[in-house]
Amino acid sequence: TTASTIKVADLEDLNTSELTSVDTNLFFAAETPSNGFELYVYDGTTTTLLDVNAGFGSSFPQDITSFNGQAYFSAQSSGGSRLLFRSDGTSVSPVTGGLVVNYQGTDVDFSGPYERLSVEDAVRRYNPKLAGADLWNTEFLRAACDALQIHTEKSWGAGKLLTELFDATVEEHLEQPTFITQYPTEVSPLSRRNDENPEVTDRFELFVCGREIANGFSELNDAEEQAERFRQQVTEKDAGDLEAMHFDADYIRALEHGMPPTAGEGIGIDRLVMLFTDSPSIRDVLLFPHMRPE
C-alpha cells in the first residue's frame, strides 16, 4: 500500500534494476562504478554481494525470475557465452555449466542455430517412401497410416492424418533442438492461417529429445473464422475426439470487440526441468505431491 526508499551503505547511487523476490529475499542487479555489474540480495535488513566467481562474467544479469526457492537469471559467462545461472541467496552457479546438456546419455547442444522443418518436410525426411508423395491427399494419407498401423478416424481430414504420421514417425528422431513449423490448420484451431498456404498455420513447436518443449503461434483474430473453427471442433468432439475444443462464446465475443495482431508461446517448464536434471520421468519433477506415486 505504501512505498519507501531502502537506504543501504555504498549502494545508494548505483543503477539497479531487474528486481525479483524469492521467499523473503529480494534479488537485484546493480551497476557499480568500478566492478561493472554485480548481483545482490537483500534480506530485509542487509544487502549482500553474491559470490560471482563460479563462471559469472561482467555482463548485466537479465530476466531475473524465481522458481522453487531460488533466483534464476541469464548472463554472459566469463567464457563469452550467455548462460543460465541460479542463486540460493548465498552463492551463484551455472544451471548446466554450459550450452551442452547430457540427457539420458545424449548430448543436447543448445548453442544453435536450431534446424527448422515444416511438418510436411519432416514427414518426407523420415519416411523415404513418402518423399515424392502428395501429402495432402486424404485417401493416400489414410492408406499410409493404415500401412504403419496408425489409428485413424473417418472424420479426419488430410491435416489431421498428416499430423498423426508426424507424431508416429518423426518425433522420436528429433533429439537436437528443432523447430517444427507450418502445422495444419485442421489441428490448430486458434492459430492464424498462413498467407501463402491456407492449409497450414503460422505455428511452431520446439522439440528436444523427442519431446515437445514449446508451442507458439500467431493468434487468429478474425471472429467469424474463429467461430467456424470452434464449430468444427464441436463436431469433432461429438464424433469422439477427446482433444477437440468446445465452443467458447465469450472468446468470440471478445474477438468481435477487436484484437490486434498477436502472437504467443507456451513453454513446458516441467519438461525443461526434466532436461536440466536428467530426469527420465515427468513424475520426478512435478510439484504436485498427489500426482506422485507413494
Description:
The protein is α+β, with helices and mostly antiparallel strands and about 290 residues long. The protein is about 20% helix and about 30% strand. It contains 6 helices and 15 strands. The chain has helices at about 120-125, 140-145, 160-170, 225-240, 250-255, 270-275, and strands at about 15-20, 25-30, 35-40, 45-50, 60-65, 70-75, 80-85, 90-95, 100-105, 105-110, 115-120, 180, 205-210, 210-220, 265. A hairpin with a 5-residue loop joins strand 6 (about 70-75) and strand 7 (about 80-85). Helix 1 (about 120-125) crosses helix 3 (about 160-170), helix 2 packs parallel to helix 3 (about 160-170) and helix 4 packs antiparallel against helix 5. The protein is globular, with a radius of gyration of 24 Å. It starts with 14 loop residues before the first strand and ends in a 17-residue tail after the last helix.
